[in-house]
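Re: duplicated header lines in exported structure tokens

Our pipeline writes sequence and tokens for each protein into one text file. With two proteins the header for the second block appears twice in some exports. Here is an export where it did not happen, for reference. First protein block:
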Amino acid sequence: MILAAGFGTRLFPLTIDRTKPALPFLGKPLVGYVAEYLAEFGFREIVVNLHHQPDSVIAALGDGSQFGVEIGYSIEQPAILGTSGALDHARHLLGDDTFLVINGKLITDIDLAAAIETHRSSGAIATMVLKPNVARERFTEVFTTEGRITGFGGMPSLQASGKSNEPPYMFTGIQILEPRVFDYIPRGVYSDIVPTFYRPAIDAGEIISAHITDGRWFELSTMKRYLEISMAMFDGGGTAIGRRSEIAEPNSVNDSVLWDDVIIEPGAKLERTIIGDGVVIRSGQKFYDSAIVRADMVRNCKEIPEKAEPGEFIGDLYVVPLR
């Protein structure tokens, strides 16, 4: 199951007309990478949950055949259901065998076969795939003892404390679950999986296995991370150019991401900038560390999300600094 129901508010205005998993990423929708990744490990039947702008994900994935999978959709309406509620809503599609759940906003090469082997050999009801949080980013700490998950903390401090200099563990958004998890999940209500399933299961003495990985893992949760991860895929820098986009000469376009139907006129300058569909950058305009969409898209949207980074209108552009 791919979780793709979120709002993507921190990626506004890139998510005006699509949800986060449907964002283009180096030539294909982000969620398409996730589908192909699952297909590499032999998964063929995929369930995708949807809520916000569901048509954007359906348009990106279709029936899944172009990504080597078969996709069924679980549409959550009128309200989004949370991670645990999403499983409940799709339980008739997940069947009665072991299943894997993954966030639809990831780029990774984590070895799922190894994670599944950890799960099978442990006899666990669930296995969470964890990574050392070396940079101590703002991800909830996960506590483990002898290969089992024992609890969850808050956000890690920026510096190591106590006797150990080992980085804390963070959850990658990949988990392997047995059908028995549904014994803990209530029917028809909004709920998240840690308080609904994991904490009660740990308290009940269930085996929750920890699979620790050092695989590459990126989560596209903000516009700055979106650009940084795009550059990482270019081994440090480069420019991604979408379909039917044109860059006139002379110009200076560096370390940027251009979506479809973008026009860069002569004498424009871009560095570390994301350019949305249909944007025209005029001669002489210069932008750095920004995300830019057409101003009419923002003027015509119903409301700007509360968590969105502030931007400004510059002519026919809406420009948001990458913070």
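Second protein block, exported in the same file:
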Amino acid sequence: MTTGLDFTLLHTDGAARRGRLDTAHGAIDTPAFMPVGTAATVKAMTPDAVRATGAQIVLGNTYHLMLRPGAERVARLGGLHRFMDWPGPILTDSGGFQVMSLAELRKITEAGVRFRSHVDGSYHDLSPERAMEIQDLLDSTITMVLDECTPFPATEKQAAESMRLSMRWAARCREAFRDRPGYGLFGIVQGGVYDDLRAESVDALANIGFDGYAIGGLAVGEGQETMFRVLEATTPRLPADRPRYLMGVGKPADIVGAVLRGVDMFDCVLPTRSGRTGQAFTRRGQVNLRNARHRDDPRPLDADCACPTCRVHSRAYLHHLVQAKEVLGLTLLTWHNLHYYQDLMAGLRDAISAGAAADFAAAFAAGQSQGDIEEL
């Protein structure tokens, strides 16, 4: 059993949990949302701006960083924290998802994955041991095991074979991981939409022993109802004294529902990607700044938001920036979206502490159902 990270469960409200994860690079209050910094940057944002949103931890991507600029180069330059000016915690995913989705050619064997880079066509081998080495070179605070990303849909037989390969890889990752205080390794639960396979995966990972447990293979097209059902079957089996991370999720409603089902950590490209396409998240739902109805609108995006975008700029100005394809528009909308997500997490933490998680979720849903006010 690893002991690198210290997780303290502070409050529970039903299945919802509020906690604190102490790491070598600072503390993380949970439930937490991690902005995605794929290539050592959160797109359209400076590190100071990301910090100003309230984010305590960001995510980096092993696949992209190993290809460019290279893990060894990052290590020579002082590690990822120094390289990207983020002294706080960094979680790096193992690269498995990107290998499956981006690599031009790939071959999966018991040894690992051999793939051809989408950047320059060069061939690379990514084994469990190499995934641990790369993340160590990057100086990742939280390292993820290498797993095979089970496709969706998959038959039970396909999901079982994929999950069991991932469990064998997880054991090799644990063996190769270099333990040190304040650093941790997370296992990843797989098994598709099959409850018995998820249970088998949880048991296998718990027997190996990890600092935290991620739930992978969801938000891949199965729908929210199925995702919540899988979470309800999975999270109660996970060790209560370790953080739980739902990978790649997601929409605000998905996050609220997952927190109510016992999840502690989230990441998703949605707030940043949406900001770069003129979409904003608000307490009354999503707003499309490309719509012409915003061109004379003097109101802020969200009257209850304290981010710089909402404090200073009108919807009319944001609409103008989006239509004119000005870079500032991407930054302002991304900043707002990340701030909104951090506000959502802070609200969930406060509600759990007060024993009011269900009330918070009901108020959230009511606000979202109102829709954006069109009349001035």
